[in-house]
Write a structure and sequence with these properties.
This protein is about 45% helix and about 15% strand. It has 8 helices and 7 strands, in the order E-H-E-H-E-H-E-H-E-H-E-H-H-E-H. Helix 2 links the parallel strand 2 and strand 3. It is globular, with a radius of gyration of 19 Å. Bound molecules: NADP nicotinamide-adenine-dinucleotide phosphate (NAP).
Amino acid sequence: MTTLPTVLITGASSGIGATYADRFARRGHDLVLVARDKARLDALAARLRKDNGVAVDVLQADLTAPADLAALETRLRDDARIGILINNAGMAQSGSFAAQTAAGIDRLLALNTTALTRLAAAVAPRFVQSGTGAIVNIGSVVGFAPELGMSIYGATKAFVLFLSQGLNLELSPKGVYVQAVLPAATRTEIWERAGIDINVLPEVMEVSELVDAALVGFDRRELVTIPPLQVAERWDALDAARQGLMSDVRQAHAAERYQQAA
Ligand code: NAP
């Protein structure tokens, strides 16, 4: 019998991360749960051990704190049982761009982009060496939509999609699976934490539906899984348009429209 890989989930104390933890435990995977709120992680871990008979480790970490991030990188590098990384921890933006503080911008970028990238980079060499493993990065459809007015948050999520596409090209030939999951509005605490009343949103997906759909994409080994996107061809068309645009980029000369005096 082959042993199932251990799954390390960041942001496992609530919402999407806690639901991933529940689903992977039901599938029989051992878990490493990461977040700041240790009491919540301990309570979830106890329930998952009892209900599913799996081993669950709890790691308290603030992923915006350099020492905590470094400790988690070490765990990912050294613990060969960990075969799946769910890069889920993230926060939304409160307020408009002009209302941001330097500290707030730093925290948002540190959590949504720096920590996610560093954790993927910590585990990738081991996965490449073993020719197996999966990295799941949680992005957002907000990364497609500057119109939504969450410019920094959306930019971090556009980063997550781009990074996942790049990692897929680099790592999938080595046997490592990379998935970007792009939810739209989902009923979790992220809204309240950002000071947004979820009840003002016209439509919201339940978190169980979101994660179950994301896992359908995971099992199919999809690169980009957008559970709320009803017409899959929309994504294919967008990606094809991007590649078409690149085919019309010529490096040596500016386009004709820029070679005339105004
Ligand atoms: P959530 O319920 O607020 O969960 C966020 C998780 O991240 C919590 O477990 C939180 O735990 C953890 N976290 C926050 N700051 C952290 C830090 N500094 N260090 C370590 N852990 C930290 O929100 P969610 O909706 O499930 O969010 C999960 C992911 O989904 C995020 O990347 C988010 O951007 C993405 N997403 C959500 C939606 C949505 O509508 N809900 C839509 C698109 C994308 P602690 O507070 O215990 O640290």
